[in-house]
Amino acid sequence: MTLTLASLAWDAHEPLRMAEFWAAALGWEIDTETHGKVSLMPMDGTRFTVAFVTGAAEKVGANRIHLDLSSRTVQDQHATVARLIDLGASEIDIGQGPDADHYVLVDPEGNEFCVLEPGNNFVSQASRLGSLTCDGTRTVGHFWSAALGWPLVWDQDEETAIRAPDGAGQFITWGGPPLPPRRGKDRLHLDVAPPANGDQRAEVERLVSLGARRIDIGPGEPPRILMADPDDNTFCVLTPR
């Protein structure tokens, strides 16, 4: 049995402000707001949600996960960048150079993301959110392929990419070594869940056999089990749904 990617969880200083920005950026809608958590509802067929949760520490260094946004044309790309800047984003230079085909920006809380050029092979063109792009080794790409049951669609030169078996939805990619140093708690992490007839504990055991480790946060069996993948990126296993 495999897991479903349920959500991208995102620590934020101001969850509602972040939700408003990203709802406008992606063309999604704000779904729920409860107890310091604001969730977005996809309006484009995306199969997972994005949830902003109060609790971001001071940001030091780049996030290990960032969003890549798609563009239909070069004109669409330029218009998207201009619109995002109007919404509160800023362009940054991380060494991409003046001749780069893509734009690197940060959202209102300094989280990096890219607006990619049209025609990129590892970005879904069916939605503005084209891919979840991660810093990670080949090992972790293979881990997540097995964890989610998503086949590898790229495995070359230490870089990996996976996509749902039906070939729809966003890619998840890993750029290979070297990894940036870890500086504090991950701001973004994946939430995964067994299907409605699944078993949370059995899935946790399976993930451990694949190379993950469970992070002990106290006695009992919480509804969200915190784990780390082979590159030590945190993620949560939710109850079946």
Keywords:
single chain, 241 residues, alpha+beta, 2,3-Dihydroxybiphenyl 1,2-Dioxygenase, domain 1, eight-stranded mixed sheet, 4 helices, globular
Summarize the structure.
The chain is of the alpha+beta class. It has helices spanning 15-26, 74-87, 138-148, 200-210, and strands spanning 4-12, 29-34, 37-41, 49-54, 65-69, 90-91, 103-106, 112-115, 129-134, 152-156, 159-162, 171-174, 188-193, 213-214, 225-228, 234-237.
Proportion of strand residues? 25-35%
Assembly type: single chain
Going by CATH, what is the homologous superfamily? Answer: 2,3-Dihydroxybiphenyl 1,2-Dioxygenase, domain 1
**CATH class categorisation:** Alpha Beta
The poorly predicted ranges are: none
Summarize the biggest pleated sheet. Answer: 8 strands, mixed
CATH topology: 2,3-Dihydroxybiphenyl 1,2-Dioxygenase, domain 1
Radius of gyration: 17 Å
Number of helices: 4
Q: What separation lies between the terminal Cα atoms? A: 14 Å
- Which strand order spans the largest sheet, edge to edge or round the barrel? 2-3-4-1-13-16-15-14
Mean pLDDT level = 94
SS-based structural class? alpha+beta
Could you estimate the helical fraction of the residues in percent?
A: 10-25%
Helix-strand sequence? EHEEEEHEEEEHEEEEHEEE
Please state the overall shape, judged from the principal axes of the Cα atoms. Answer: globular
> How many distinct beta strands?
16
What count of structural domains? 1
